[in-house]
Amino acid sequence: MAKHLGEFEQLVLFALVHLGEEAYGLAIRRDIEKRAGRAVSQGAVYMTLNRLADRGYVTAHSEQPADGNGGRPRKLYRLEPAGARTLRRAYDQMSAMADGALETLGDIADGRGPRSRASSGAVRTGSEAKAG
Amino acid sequence: MSDVNGRELSSLPPLARLSRALFTALARGESAELTLADLDDEFAERIAAADSPRAAGRAYRRQLIRSLVPAMRDARADRRRRAARFGIGASLDRDRAHALREALQDARYAVRSFASSPGPTAVVLVTLALGIGANTAVFSVVNGVLLRPLPYPDPDRLVVLATRDTQDGDTYTVSPLNFVDWSEMNETLEATYAWTSTILTITDGDRREQVEAGDVSPGFLDVLGVTPILGRGFLPDELGPGSPAVALLSHGFWERRYGADPGVPGSVIELDGRPYEIIGVAPPGLEMPLARTEKDLWVTPRDDWAAEARDQVYLSALGRLKPNVSLARAQEDLSAVHARLRAAYPNETIDTGVAVVPLKSEAVGDVRLALVVVLGAVAFLLLLACANVANLFLARAAGRGTELGVRTALGAGRGRLTRQLLTESTVVALVAGALGVVVGWGGLRLLIALAPDDLPRVASATLDPTVLAFSTLATIVTGVLFGAVPALYATRRDPVRMLRGTGRGQVGGHGLRRLREGLVVAEIASAVVLVVGAGLLARSFGAMLSVDPGFDESNLVLAEIHVPQDRYPEREQRAEFYRGLMEALEASPAVVAAGGAWNAPMNGAVANTGLQLEGEPRPEPGQAPLAEFRIATGGYFDALRIPVLAGRSFLPSDTRDQPRRVVVSRLLAEEMWPGENPVGRRVSLNILETDGAPLWHEVVGVVGDVRLNGLDDPERGVIYLAYSQLAQPWITVTARTLGDPAENAAAVRDAILAFEPLVPNPEITTMSGRVAETLAARRFYLTLLGAFAAIALVLASVGTYGVLAYAVSSRTNEIGVRVAFGASRRRILGQVLIEGMRVAGLGVAIGLLGAWLLSRTLRSLVYGVSVGDPVTYVGVAVLLVVAALLACVVPASRAASVEPLDALRYE
């Protein structure tokens, strides 16, 4: 099974972390919409959860009906240790890549073009960048 | 409707409900169920939070649509998962096999149930086949004429170069001198050529033959981007009188006259007495853009273009843009070039500019609007067909409450029933699509056969697969949508209520009936729009037919004649030839009166000249009053029965050694000499002047006005010159015959050939045929729109009938009770009629409004009536109401004849 996590899979896993015991389909979708600010389809959320379950990253169990959810059993999802490790690794990789690149990224996005090394002073090493 | 938890979802708006039904039918599995449950929750929450049902419904719908594909994919993954878990690959196959079996079962069931009610099924099929077929045929024509690329390499780079009148923006032909300068001074065109049409006579060999020729400048093949299949194309210096005369043969002419002999290049053909070297043969099917006739060959121009005046405009010009040059850039470039010419030759370029127009838009310019109107009409027709089918489906589903109830009670799920109803509508749509292909194919053949000659490229139009696919898809979507609506109604009730049979096993009730009535209103409204359109065109056509062309078109035979120039090279000889020819014709027993003209009416020719009146100052360049000019013999006015209102027409004594004489039309006389007798006054025609000195012509008579180019052409002032003084090498003989012109055509031809056997095959037509040709386009569009309107009328009537008949039969019970309690039959009859008229009246009102709003697009196609013509609108309203009334009569009289006992026993 592939270790790689897609972007949307990462969003779903983070939502599980945030929601803890209250992680069911609609809540997960709303959490992603609230935090990431993007529209997400409910069907895609379930498809992704099932795929993550196949890989052992999440598990699902049914909660007994309680007040306030229309009286139907809800299906709750929980992040498993394997999922947490993989998510952590994926995030570390991404932030390591992002480190020191964000300023230039902003310049390019604003249309100023990448700064030349000469004008931005000394060449920074990876460790310096991390320290900064 | 209730959700998965049994909660009522009655506040779900209809579209959201429809989406939900489709989602349920298409996506199965746990994820789909969970998604639905979540969205139902969310919807309920939003409503509880005082969100508007519309906004909440929209969000709901959007979520469902976007969730559909993931849910379906997840269901597939789920099946795979289960198969893997149990290690049985067969489970997946079984799943598939089951679904397939189910679908086949549904399809078989659908076919059986349609076969059991052949009448309504046939109506549905015919309706749809007509809609799909008509749409496909018409769109194929539009595609062939308007959309298909021109048959040359990189056709988008081909442009027409035209002179633009800076006063009114009109574009017209080009002067040779301007063309040469434009070609040499521009920076954006790769190649250019200019041409004019001519008819030449082959003068070598035993048999004289007229050929259609194009005088072309050397860039001809370079602009079009084609190479000859034999020999070579024109060389850059093959222009002008000093260069050798050469000819390029068309493929068809090469096959016809030379038997496709590959040794032809290098040989000589004599045209109008002058030898031309044949340089090559064009590839098959080479069309000359914008030419009205198919050319047999192309030759170097005989006139010396460099010797013409700069304001003599008679050439058509085309160019090929250099690669990556935009139209705007080329226009800018040529405008700059022309500005330099205007500075250099101010007097000859008054009010002129240059227009660079894509060849495509120029080639289809005139017919675009008419075709778009027809396309719009046929789209209405398709809509109408779809509405009708939807209606019939709804009626069908409404009557099936009992059946669906039984099946639900026996355990059929909602998804299962919905799928089955959808299968039924899809089956119908597919069969109708197949019939539509047949109708479309036949329709296209018919359209091509009926199309007027000036509809460019129509003959090569082919049935367009994209359109066919689109039309079929449109009907399938209609089928699915309107198959789904009854499914929704049918499956939401609980089976006990359905079986108990409130209202004789029907489903839907009030909402469904309103929907059906709405559809009928839409149908009637569409029909009104179409019938009004057709009505306006018909009224225009009638108005045109009643126009007096100013001459008597009956019993007139026309013959296009080319004088053998080697025998009659001088004007005096030709004048003598014409005088003798007219005498010979009038001596024929078949001919009552004979004359001739350069450009007889209805041949599409435009030739005008500026005028100067004697005793008045010379007008500034570009300011001279304009008149159409024609050249005629004295007998021409007798033959056409154009009345001589004052003075006289031309006499044989008006010879070239006499003072120049003209005859003017009534309108021109009023314009030039208001309130005076023009006879005896003198006028100069700019076009005949040399060195800017007036050439005076004495007015000897005034004749009646004629419509020159079509009955919708406004009357124009015409000045007639005398053939006896200005004999052209061509003439259109106009012979008034004794009786049917078609029967006497041979006698006219014989008389001409008896007088001069060397006249090459005179082309014989009749004036009434020419007038009909000018009406052909209008007749074509009228026929099309008329046919659509008739179909629309029938469809709308069927729709009205269907709704009312159903309403009556579903209320048999109620009517029976009312009759039993003493309601009179007349009253019941009246009530049903009023109900029908309510629906019809609403449809007519909406349709009239729509027609009025759309009618402005017809403005340029309508003649002699306004687009808001009250006669048409009132007439159409009455027609539609009568049609609706007829459609109501059968159900109404059935209602009125209900026997109370039968009705009560009916249950």
What do these coordinates show?
The complex is a heterodimer of chains A (132) and B (907). Chain A is mostly helical. Chain A contains six helices and two strands. A two-stranded antiparallel sheet of chain A has the order 1-2. In chain A, helix 1 (7-19) crosses helix 2 (25-36). Chain A is elongated. Mean pLDDT of chain A is 79; it is low at 116-132. With 907 residues, chain B is an alpha+beta fold. Chain B contains 24 helices and 22 strands. In chain B, strands 1, 2, 3, 4, 5, 6, 7, 8, 9, 10 and 11 form an eleven-stranded mixed beta sheet that branches. In chain B, strands 14-15-20-17-19-18 form a six-stranded mixed β-barrel. The longest helix of chain B is centred in the last third of the chain and has 44 residues, at 767-810. The radius of gyration of chain B is 37 Å and the shape is elongated. Chain A binds chain B through residues 25-26, 29, 39, 41-44, 46-47, 50-51, 54, 69-72, 75, and chain B through 4-5, 7, 27, 31-32, 34-35, 37-42, 44, 63, 66-71, 73-74, 77-78, 81.
Summarize the structure.
The complex is a heterodimer of chains A (132) and B (907). Chain A is mostly helical and 132 residues long.
Q: Tell me how many strands of chain A there are.
A: 2
- Structural class of the helices, strands and pairings of chain B? alpha+beta
**Average of the residue pLDDT scores of chain A:** 79
End-to-end C-alpha gap of chain A: 37 Å
Q: Beta fraction of the residues of chain B? A: 5-15%
Rg from alpha-carbon coordinates of chain A: 20 Å
State the low-pLDDT regions of chain A, or none: 116-132
- Contiguous runs where pLDDT drops below 50 for at least 5 residues of chain B: 1-8, 501-507
- Head-to-tail CA distance between termini of chain B: 28 Å
